[in-house]
Amino acid sequence: xxxxxxxxxxxxxxxxxxxxxxxxxxxxxxxxxxxxxxxxxxxxxxxxxxxxxxxxxxxxxxxxxxxxxxxxxxxxxxxxxxxxxxxxxxxxxxxxxxxxxxxxxxxxxxxxxxxxxxxxxxxxxxxxxxxxxxxxxxxxxxxxxxxxxxxxxxxxxxxxxxxxxxxxxxxxxxxxxxxxxxxxxxxxxxxxxxxxxxxxxxxxxxxxxxxxxxxxxxxxxxxxxxxxxxxxxxxxxxxxxxxxxxxxxxxxxxxxxxxxxxxxxxxxxxxxxxxxxxxxxxxxxxxxxxxxxxxxxxxxxxx
Length: 303
Prior knowledge:
The chain is α/β, with parallel strands linked by helices. It contains eight helices and ten strands.
């Protein structure tokens, strides 16, 4: 397999191609990523400073009986969730991302502000940038079944946002399939008249599907809301998302954050990179993936 050059790496990571090759090597059939020509678009119904915003995440509530879910924990299928969950937005919940394929080589998920910007959103309310934060945040399952996302999870999410009288939603993605699940949810919300902006790091997945508004951060997966332990980065990232929510005039509007993970883009070569794995390592990873998939829940495909 050819080695990427520095110039090649200074482009967004091709997650669809990488994951197709990676899971193909593990013996799995290629995943069919959703794609739509038409993209719904709902303008923000009122000025941002008067709007009620809800936060949607793919992070999972911490459950002490489900094994290691701490910073840098290996993929933990037992920690997955399979139905929409909600919680009060006036406090900081304990949400983790050990159940999904974020970039464990280059980030540890030890700062929830990088994947769950609730505190930053409350600060935006305090500064008068937004009208108010919706009374609840909501968790959407990371689901390889697009049918379940479209027919079950997205309608439930819509019902909860309507109950909260949310005018708009910020959806924050983590792994490649998270990006697709939230893209499908964003489309459903927009069709129902709720404006959305998706914050993510997998540009190809989101743009292939087609969403109204997308804030792209060229960071390792798991950092869609900004750099870890860097409040200024997280606040600036959220502000870009809010500005995009208010200013976009047509669907398929993508804005790229100007922030860089680091000057050297070589970190991009590592994610799901087969040329860095031996045959023995590939076999070990398949066995490990199968074990975690069955832990998740009988009869349900793992992320």
